[in-house]
Amino acid sequence: GENVEQHPSTLSVQEGDSAVIKCTYSDSASNYFPWYKQELGKRPQLIIDIRSNVGEKKDQRIAVTLNKTAKHFSLHITETQPEDSAVYFCAASMGTSYDKVIFGPGTSLSVIP
Amino acid sequence: DGGITQSPKYLFRKEGQNVTLSCEQNLNHDAMYWYRQDPGQGLRLIYYSQIVNDFQKGDIAEGYSVSREKKESFPLTVTSAQKNPTAFYLCARSGRTDYGYTFGSGTRLTVV
Predict the structure, then answer these.
(1) Do the chains contact at B101 and A49, CB–CB below 8 Å?
(2) Phi, psi (rounded to 5 degrees) for A83
(3) No. of H helices and E strands in chain A?
(4) Are A106 and B41 within 8 A, CB to CB?
């Protein structure tokens, strides 16, 4: 089955700096890669996703890149703000409507004011 | 609530007791999922259902059971066979054109 690894497990950055979280996946059939943000005690929320026919996607201060050949994908957050502090999960699935999603172990991001 | 509701928010279970966690969605979505989250850990799939009256085991199904008698409801029972049930339980749904999950607000289960 699919296995998703994520690094680093914790990340601290100064406010205004950039943060990068990297993930790898094992199943070459996976073609949908969502990212979730979970604030303390709350539910994970989808913040951005990418499909395998796209190499990069941006939404304001966040961007995802995908290297399908190497089975790597990354989350980039620019101009970090304290409210970006949370746990971020990468995930992978086959990409049809009802496929189960396999999550990475998470990265705890702290943005220091 | 994103069209998906979990209850209760907090639940306490005594040793040897079965408890049932509720998950309801009102968006007519076919697929529903249960995940377990331990402190500082990722999300592990317990069970999922893609259609009424059908469900599949995830990676950690032992000690849990589910039912899907109605499209809008996917309850999870934590049985006495689950030896370490203390965790945060999250239910999710996805639809035909909505590939990402929407999660419920979760149930925090504690063994007392």
Answers:
(1) no
(2) -70, -5
(3) 0, 11
(4) yes
* Side chain identity, residue B9: K
Which tokens hold the place of A43?
Answer: 């539910």
Q: Which residue reads 């700096």 in tokens?
A: A17
Ordered DSSP codes for A28-89: TT--EEEEEEE-TTS--EEEEEEETT-SEEEETTEEEEEETTTTEEEEEE-S--GGG-EEEE
Q: What is the pLDDT of residues A17-61, one digit of tens each?
A: 999 999 999 998 898 899 999 998 899 999 999 988 878 999 999
Using the structure block, give the residue that is written with the tokens 């639809």: B95
How far apart, in Å, are the Cα atoms of A55 and each of A17, A50, A58, A67? 24, 8, 11, 7
The chain B residue lying nearest A32, using CA atoms, is: B99
In the predicted model, is pLDDT for residue A80 greater than 90? yes
Q: Which of B77, B97, B98 lies closest to B13 in space, CA to CA?
A: B77
